[in-house]
Request: fold
Amino acid sequence: MLPLPTGAFQAYLFDCDGTIVDSMPQHYTAWRETLDQWDCAFPEKLFYAWAGRPTAEIVAALNQQHGLDMPLETVVAHREARFQQLLPSATGIPGVLHHIDDAHGRIPFAVVSGSTREAVTASLDALGILDRFDVLVCAGDYSRAKPDPEPFLRAAELLGVPPRSCLVFEDADLGMQAAAAAGMAAVRVPQPRKG
Reply:
């Protein structure tokens, strides 16, 4: 069971990948297989350090790091298609799903993600819980990504809930920083143990 901080929270804001859905391994495989076409290294440690960054930012950073000129739209389309193929093997994170089941219908939920709307929708749909979320704030819905507070503040605004009354569920450092900057309480979701 994932312990929550005390407080009368009026909304739950969830990151998606690594928080609701244990899909980070599928994301990494999709990245690695896509980037192999350009002989672009993306170490797993760096992938997890950059968790929460939008895809376009990752491609730009890798291009700069490796002196490459990978076409953004091609990389994104290929990575997205490969992720969709791998998605059926992803599972939900039990501690978080428990809180979604427990609070559903009592308070509104939002997903706040650096992933595309297509990836988020597919992930939630694969778990059969897409209809539980009142708001999705995804890559392209904000101008400054996590660790900037903008994505979380946008979700609070769309839900009509003050930031201080929101509880964030997040697995990544960038997301925890963004929640703190937004003045929101947060609970860190530990990475599932493998094997």
Observations:
- Strands lie at 11-14, 21-22, 91-92, 109-112, 135-137, 166-170, 185-188.
